[in-house]
Fold this sequence. Notes:
By secondary structure, the protein is an alpha+beta fold. 34% of the residues lie in helices and 14% in strands. It contains 16 helices and 13 strands. Helix 15 (435-443) crosses helix 16. The chain is elongated and about 125 Å long.
Amino acid sequence: MFLADTLSRAFLKETNEDLIPDLTVNEVHLLQYLPVSPEKYRKFQQTTAEDEELKVLQDIVLKGWPDTKEQVPVSARHYWSCRDEISSVDGLLFKNHKLVVPKPMRKEMLKTIHNSHMGIVKCKSRAREVMYWPGMSTEVEETVAKCSTCAQHLARNPKEPLTETEIPDRPWSVVSADIFEFKGHNYMVTVDNFSKWPEVAKLDNLSSNNTIHYLKSQFSRNGIVDKLITDNGPQFSSDAFATFAKEYGFIHPTSSPHYAQSNGQAERIVQTVKNLIKKASDPYLALLAYRNTTMEEIGLSPAQMFYGRRLKTDLPTTYPLLTSQEVSNGQEIKKRLKLRQSKHKMFFDRHSGPELKPLNTGDKVIMNHNNSWIPATVSGKHKNPKSYILENSNGRKYRRNRKHIRPTKADIQIRTEEPSMEPPPLTTFDTPEKASTETVLVDKPNSVRQSSEQLISPKPNFEPSLQKCTRSGRVVVPPRKLCDYVS
């Protein structure tokens, strides 16, 4: 036996002999350290022993880590960066106090992590607190992304940056139109995208022929437009209107269904005209005043940009101001309009998110339909920007704006599709907005108006069949005095 002095480097070799017989060193009661059921504990032990990767890792932990990463077996190199934190206790591996989950148990753990259907960030945070395995964060992200329940309850896409439309070179070249209802009467408003000159017509009914009649009247006064932008109302999506556009020789693009912002010029002028009709005692004088009022950023009124002169109003105006004057050339006005448009975009984009990524044909998506998300496939891109043609599992095609579409990895199965509130798809894939309501308005305006009024101010109904019950089963009986108000 050799004894080394204090300063000698000839230390004794380590041995595995028991210094004290019948004593187990570092014995840990793991059921207290990891409070799980005995069955779950044994399952973790068994799967850890069967996992080839963890079996190699456990041998390295017990025998000691090599000096370099290259000396570590390939299957265990993922743990090199945290080698000082890994320990083996009673057949289980830990990274600090976090359990290293074997491969056979990872799928079950992922399901448990996401059983509350929280988002990606919360699920990753929940997992990182108590367990570990290489690539865990990525697998948690994929699990949440493929969850069909979460996919059907997603929030709407964030607001995108404003898309600037092309400004025309001359008045009455590009015109936007829309139909609105006010106090039981229907109006059609058209606005010139260059001069912002509005035209308002009170419609006799909501048929396509009546709409075409008033548009022809405007075209006879101001000329035929190059492009008429509308929504997908039944008046504008009918065969009669398509024939009218072909005969008069103008392009007729439509906005995406359920996305009025793409026809923002008309939607904005509708608000203005509604306010004029609502507030003014004489809406004709109010409309004349609006047409003759100078736009601050442009320095010209819609009348000056449209007719090249001021209009006589109820305000006293001198003769020189009413005569035709030389207005700035079209390019100068277009430059001012562009500056005005850029200013609006700057303020709009302050509260918008990033631009959504474009989609490709064949992409698996979910689309917003009747305030819920349903699965679909991208069938192609529409000619309008940020507009796509989607096809559901039944082969029915829809047109949607990118704002109403979300890419998904989830496999959503719908047993029975809810009855659609939209009419059958058109050949041009322009699904009308509010088509069912407007179609009924043409046939039975009085009945629809009455039903809408009942929805706005319903009358109390005390029929026994409509009585409510409490959770305990007691019938709620309204006081008899309220029955006096029933007509």
